[in-house]
TrEMBL record:
PROSITE patterns: PROKAR_LIPOPROTEIN (PS51257), TPR (PS50005). This is Uncharacterized protein. Residues 1-20 form the signal peptide. It comes from Deinococcus cellulosilyticus (strain DSM 18568 / NBRC 106333 / KACC 11606 / 5516J-15). InterPro entries: TPR_rpt. The keyword Signal applies. Keywords: Signal, TPR repeat. TPR repeats lie at residues 176-209.
């Protein structure tokens, strides 16, 4: 909603070009059309590049919501104070007296908190009524200075409105939104590589999206860990893995199965984290349960250095689905960090 109010506070964003006999008249003609809501004249006053962004009807549609707040700027005035122009284009500096948007925004925010405006289904109408009543004796004003770029084309002077850049920005933002949606879906499916790629492409299109940046950073951490796993996993050699039954000599009612063997670090990296995934399988070797075993952790202060051997002795009874159902196990490196 405040963005719609800013529309009036910053006529620089709504400049237009017109076939006019001078740069000054082109800018003043556009500003007069802005204050009065003459969208046809605004559009005619835009440069050819800006008019190429939207048709007149598209431009009018975009201004429908803002038009209901036109009363805020109808009494605004402007005057040219300087220009720096050659035969093809340049800049015109204008002093504009119009709504003090700092005051309007403060009043609006206060009203929104006091009345719970965000819960109002007719937010725009409520805001309009509030502003009309609040400023029935006049809108608080301030004077600002703006520079407007002008170009000479089509037999007259026109104002560069920035519509072309605005359209390109909106297209980038929409593309970024679509890519972020693909990234979220990929992440939910566990495809970290695809999620990472989509998020990075999304941020290229719209680097300022803080929510996407946050999600991208989270996925980037997982992606880095995944890449480390793929790269270093071949250097971790599992040797002599087997299940052995151990009798505790009366301390347990029956012998319990243990997974035993060795894991050898044959690479050159010192691991600060190493986690195994043990999968329980039935007689048909279908997975029916699993457990993670953290062999090395940064909290243990015992890194797994190159050449070191980890002696594995894992009691499989605990966390098993049931003693009767599982028969076989699968073992793999679930995660690592160095």
């Amino acid at each position: 909603m405040t963005r719609k109010l800013l529309f009036f506070a910053l006529p620089l964003l709504l400049t237009a070009c017109s076939n006019s006999s001078s740069p000054e008249k082109a800018v003043q003609g556009y500003l007069k059309a802005t204050f009065s809501g003459d969208l046809d004249t605004q559009y005619q006053l835009a440069s050819a590049e800006d008019r190429a962004a939207w048709t007149l009807e598209e431009y009018k549609t975009r201004q429908q919501d803002a038009d209901q707040f036109r009363f805020l700027v109808k009494d605004s005035t402007s005057k040219v104070i300087s220009k720096d122009v050659d035969e093809s284009g340049g800049w015109v500096t204008v002093e504009t007296t119009g709504p003090d948007m700092t005051t309007l925004a403060r009043d609006f925010i206060g009203m929104a908190f006091a009345t719970g405006l965000s819960q109002d289904k007719n937010t725009e109408e409520t805001l309009k009524k509030f502003l009309q009543e609040k400023y029935k004796n006049g809108v608080p004003k301030t004077t600002t200075t703006q520079e407007y770029e002008v170009v000479k084309e089509e037999g007259g002077w026109h104002v560069r409105t920035g519509w072309a850049e605005q359209k390109a920005k909106e297209e980038r933002e929409q593309k970024a939104k679509n890519l972020a949606a693909l990234a979220k879906t990929a992440a939910e499916k566990g495809d970290i590589e695809a999620a990472h790629t989509y998020y990075q492409e999304s941020l290229k299109q719209n680097p300022g999206d803080s929510m996407v940046k946050y999600e991208a950073e989270r996925v980037a951490e997982k992606y880095q860990a995944h890449q480390q796993l793929l790269t270093y996993k071949p250097y971790l050699k599992m040797e002599g893995l087997k299940i052995e039954m151990e009798d505790y000599g009366g301390f347990a009612p029956e012998a319990e199965p243990h997974l035993r063997g060795k894991i050898r670090n044959t690479g050159t990296e010192t691991l600060t984290d190493l986690t195994l995934l043990i999968t329980y399988r039935d007689k048909n070797k279908q997975a029916i349960g699993e457990k993670e075993r953290h062999l090395v952790s940064s909290y243990m202060d015992r890194p797994f250095k190159p050449g070191f051997i980890y002696d594995l002795d894992e009691n499989l009874k605990y966390d098993a689905p049931s003693e009767a159902d599982w028969r076989y196990t699968g073992v793999e490196i679930a995660s690592l960090k160095y």
